[in-house]
Structure formats: C-alpha cells, structure tokens
Amino acid sequence: MSDAPRDPGTEPATRSGDAGSRIAAELREAILDGAYAPGARVRQEDLAGRHGASRLPVREALKMLEAEGLVTVVANTGAWVSRLSLAECEEMYQIRERIEPLLLRYSIPKLTDETIDRLERLAQQMEQSTDIEQFLRLDREFHLSGYAAAETAVLGGLVEQLWNRTQHYRRAFTRVFRSEGDRSVHHDHHLLVHAIRRGDLDEAERVLLGHIRRTRLELARHPEVFA
User: The whole model's pTM is what?
Assistant: First the structure.
C-alpha cells in the first residue's frame, strides 16, 4: 500500500459524488414508481433533509436525472419531474418501435434457456396480476431481460432511457387496457416468448414492433393523459 499523502481536495468530492449517485438512484426509482407525477415539484431542501445530505449532492443528483430526461431544472427557480406532450411521447414511441426490435434481434441468439423460461413465467405472472404497479414491474423486467444479452455500446442505454421517460404514460396505458378488458398485451407477450424460444428473429421483431405501436396508438386516443 502506498504511503503517499492523499490530496485533501479529492475525498469530499468523492463522497459528494457517491451521495449524489445514491440520491439520484432513489429519486429515479421514486419517479418510475409513480411517487412523483409529471410536472411535480422536486424540492431540493426536502431531498437534502431526507438523505441527511447537503445541497451539493442533491444538485448533482438532479443534474444526473436532468441528463436522463427525467427532471427539468430551471436555474434559480427549482426542479420538476419532466412531462411529455402527446407529440413528444408519440415521437419516443416511434423511436422505440424502430430500435427495440433491433436490440431484441441482437439479444436473442445469446439468451439462455434459463432466461427464456424466466420470460415465460413473467408473461404468465403478468396475465394473472390484478395490480397495475406489479404489472408494470413485471413488464419492465420481461422486456429489459429479453434485451439484456445484447452487447451494444449505445443502443441498450438509449432504450432504457426511453423506457424511463415514457414510464408514466405506460402506466396510463395500462389503466386504459385493463378498464377496457383488452387482452392483446398478454397475447403479444406469449407470442414473443414463443418466437424467442424458436430463435425466429424476424417474427420476434414483428411482434415487438406491433406491441409497442399498439401502446402508441392507444395513448393517442386518450389525449387527456397529457393534459
């Protein structure tokens, strides 16, 4: 172990960075879980008090989430959970329609039988679930697990960011399809598992594209979600 003296300026910065990352992770989870609605104020003093931290790591956390598109920070004013217009949400869903099938194509050849079995169980659990938040957690695990074997430099991170930014509106869509008794989402999940198990890349891409497009079209039918 080196006996060289440590730069006294690096340790507080490191601690602040660690605290900022921790606060960002917890705030991100709270936003995705629906604890903050789009447009809700995020008060720095509340975050600092809750985490026993100074304002510096809180500001760093907000910068991280602003870079991800989850938070909007207005200088000398405050921070709010980002909200999407219908046009913005449609654009993000159209991007997802094009890039998620490609990510799935990269991933399928490397998925293990164990992972595919897990996807099948998740599809069954979603079909049986009566709780919206549980469904959303299972749905997220289902899709991101299906992509997880892909080795990409950019695509995987971009897909996850788009998932995070559209999370609230996916929650709204889930309420809609449940209230209307629509079972097509579950049908898509089972078709997707079957295509993945067969290694049918073209069919898996086709099913996934239609699955994402259906959500986009249903959200467009309910502009009140974006009011």
Answer: 0.86
